[in-house]
Specification:
heterodimer; A: mainly alpha; 2 domains; 17 helices; 69% helix; B: 286 residues; alpha/beta; Rossmann fold; five-stranded parallel β-sheet; two-stranded parallel ribbon; 11 helices; 9 strands; 15% strand; globular
């Protein structure tokens, strides 16, 4: 499994195999050092070594140019011009994911919540496990590492559920996400002039594109892992059926949000201290979470928007209102819609190239200029894509709604529905010019 | 297995519907054209489709022509179309090859963007051989579609599956060409300006499909006429070849005749078609 995982990763660029091997080695040694070391200061030093090495690599490959350009721009705004050159750095695929995954291991060992493994091969496989290496879910060692130790016996039902999940994930990716991309790219990058409603729909479609893309990948990753007998955590739990922002963040990119909760928010004190401390901690977590997504101010602003939306719920202690209940009632539909609209507006910052473009985009929506939606049906090709997208989204929401009402954690296909979805993939999917997975860039 | 069977069935049905309809030129030739004998056919890409108006030519010369050009295709596709034409049992005295000017010099042809339009006939040898002669994923998908039609119909679902639904509802519907196979670009509000200079391009006719088209024409007693359409920026300079060449690359001297650099608009089409008719008058088939 380790060889296969390294082959899989190295196929993209063998030079970056060294990075993942280095990360694995550092944390393997640090964790075993932590197990032997009882002195608090030395334990802190070992943990710091792991943090510095992993976050240092992440920081260099992902954020070096951003910091340089922001530094220069900041001084430039004060009238001081600087000449600093940026580097042509290739971002290693999956570095944001496997870095956090391996960090969670050393932190858990430091906290004595986990015994370190002495098996370097097993640990390296945990770090590089190919189904979830490039875009998550970000697995915890407590959950995944034991699975490499235990003997796995092929379970046909488990494997079949994985196969069905792959089909569902493919549907979300090639039918929903890639068809939505057709309009989203036009509206966001095309430079044309659009009415307010077209711009709003563009943002809505991006919301479905990123959901289909990312959750589709997660489903495929989880499904593939099941074929090998491994169980990965659920990463998305029908986020567009959320009734408030707090619920949204319990349903969206669960592996990342729980990582930040357990390793940033709670250590900072969570909401246990004063209101100001709670506000500070929320902002830190959401801003850092935004920053994790990419080296651009738009992602930080996106995180900040979610912090602002989340804060009232925290301050009024209503952020855990829907923890127990997942079933929807009709009277909750307005909440659902409001949450969806708020999330959609935040996505504008996530998708736009610059903050000013995002601001302008929102201003143009709010200017309410024109109600025409001609972009979506001005010729037969547009009309075709619009029809496919509408149909695809309807089917997606129907299946997810049924799963939510049955309190399921994922859409569970039957043989008949799997065949139906597979046929939809075949005849509605984008195969000629597919889009790359959005989260591969993170 | 159920999925493969069902998807094959749907794809098979889709291709059958396309075969029976008139949506694309290959099936239009079989079902939308009653005549079996022509004085000439026009084989080309979008330049052939939008430059030579067979109605105008026929009205001047009293001939009976058919335009079998398809946009976003190359000389290789025109060769395939000629094979398809011959396979239908129809006859023509002349073949006017009206490919885009640069295509005549292409040494290593590749699969064209719209070659999927022959997929409804993938079970025929000449189509299967055509697809198999190219490398790359689209060519392989089209080639394997002979046994697994859902591969090609799925890959080109927007271009094949959905048009088949249109064809099912409207069998006579044609995809942007009239009953004679012609199409024209509109006259947009483009400025009128004399074309001062054009880039000289020597035409070596190195494309291997020219020889194949030539040989196929010779085998079926068809006179080959190679037509170099008007171009806003290129002045073609053909070398001597063993077939008749009509060079109209610089025939239009004003930008108002052009839709874009390599396509004429309706105005340009009218002008060029008349001149073509006068020039070919007296040749076999005309």
């Amino acid at each position: 499994m380790l060889v296969a995982s390294y082959l899989f990763y190295g196929w993209w660029d063998w030079r970056f195999l060294g990075l993942i091997v280095f990360s694995s080695l550092v944390d393997y040694l640090v964790a075993n050092g932590l197990a032997k070391q009882q002195q608090v200061n030395k334990r802190k030093l070992l943990l710091a070594l792991s943090l510095v090495c992993n976050l240092g690599l992440l920081g260099f490959f992902k954020y070096y140019n951003f910091f340089i350009e922001s530094w220069v721009a900041a001084w430039g705004s004060l009238g001081v011009s600087m000449s600093v050159s940026t580097l042509s750095i290739i971002l290693p695929v999956g570095i944001s994911f496997y870095t956090f995954q391996t960090l969670s291991y050393t932190i858990d060992v430091y906290r004595r919540q986990l015994e370190p493994t002495r098996d370097l091969v097993q640990f390296s496989t945990y770090v590089a496990f190919f189904p979830q290496l490039v875009a998550g879910p970000i697995e915890r060692a407590k959950q995944l590492l034991p699975q490499f130790k235990n003997q796995r016996i092929f379970n046909s039902d488990f494997a079949l559920s994985g196969f069905y999940l792959i089909i569902w994930g493919l549907f979300k990716k090639v039918v929903i996400a890639d068809n939505c991309a057709f309009f989203v790219n036009q509206i966001f990058d095309g430079g044309g002039s659009y009415t307010s409603i077209e711009l709003f729909l563009g943002a809505v479609l991006f919301g479905f594109q990123i959901y289909g893309d990312f959750s589709g990948y997660s489903d495929i990753a989880i499904g593939v892992a099941r074929l090998f007998g491994f169980s990965l955590m659920t990463n998305f739990s029908f986020p567009y059926f959320s009734r408030d922002i707090a619920e949204f963040w319990r349903r969206w990119h669960i592996s990342l949000s729980t990582w930040f909760r357990d390793y940033v928010y709670i250590p900072l004190g969570g909401s246990r201290g004063s209101n100001w401390q709670g506000i500070r901690n929320v902002f830190i977590v959401f801003l850092v979470s935004g920053f994790w997504h990419g080296a651009n101010w738009t992602f930080i602003i996106w995180g900040g928007i979610h912090a602002v939306l989340f804060l009232p719920l925290l301050l009024f202690k209503s952020n855990r209102k829907y923890v127990e209940t997942t079933r929807m009632s009709m009277r909750q539909a307005p909440r659902l819609l409001v949450t969806f609209v708020l999330v959609t507006f935040a996505w504008i910052f996530f998708r736009a190239d610059t903050a000013s473009m995002a601001y302008q985009y929102i201003l143009d929506i709010c200017s309410f200029n024109g109600s025409s939606m001609l972009t979506f049906y001005k010729n037969s090709k547009m009309l075709l894509f619009s029809t496919i997208i509408c149909l695809g989204i309807l089917i997606l929401l129907l299946f997810e709604f049924l799963a939510v009402q049955k309190n399921k954690k994922e859409v569970e296909l039957t043989p008949l529905t799997a065949i139906f979805i597979a046929i939809l993939i075949c005849f509605m999917g984008v195969f000629k010019n597919p889009s790359d997975f959005i989260y591969f860039q993170f | 297995m159920v999925f493969i069977a069902l998807s094959c069935l749907i794809a098979f049905g889709s291709l059958r519907v396309l075969r029976q309809g008139n949506f694309y030129k290959p099936s239009f030739l079989e079902h939308g054209v009653e005549a079996t004998a022509f004085d000439y056919i026009v084989l080309g890409s979008s330049t052939g489709l939008t430059t030579l108006n067979t109605q105008v030519i026929d009205s001047v010369l009293g001939t009976h022509g058919l335009n079998l050009s398809m946009d976003d295709t190359a000389l290789s596709s025109q060769y395939l179309m000629l094979q398809h034409f011959i396979n239908t049992g129809k006859k023509t005295k002349s073949c006017v090859l009206a490919a885009s000017i640069p295509d005549y010099n292409v040494v290593h042809p590749t699969l064209s963007g719209n070659d999927y339009r022959f997929l409804p006939y993938v079970s025929r040898d000449y189509v299967q051989d055509y697809y198999s002669s190219f490398s790359g994923r689209p060519a392989r998908i089209l080639s394997y579609s002979n046994w697994f039609p859902m591969l090609g119909v799925g890959y080109y679902n927007a271009e094949l599956f959905y048009p088949s639904l249109i064809s099912l509802l409207e069998p006579q519907k044609r995809n942007r060409f009239d009953a004679f196979g012609n199409y024209s670009y509109p006259v947009t509000s483009k400025y009128s300006k004399p074309i001062e200079a054009r880039r000289q391009l020597k035409m070596n006719f190195q494309n291997p499909y020219i020889k194949r088209i030539q040989d196929l024409c010779a085998a079926h007693n068809i006179q080959l006429i190679v037509y170099l359409p008007p171009h806003e920026q290129i002045a073609a300079q053909p070398i001597e070849m063993p077939f008749y060449i009509i060079n109209h690359s610089t025939i239009l001297q004003d930008t108002r005749y052009f839709y874009d650099a390599q396509h004429v608009n309706a105005l340009g089409r009218q002008e060029v078609s008349l001149r073509f008719a006068l020039e070919v008058s007296g040749l076999v088939g005309f």
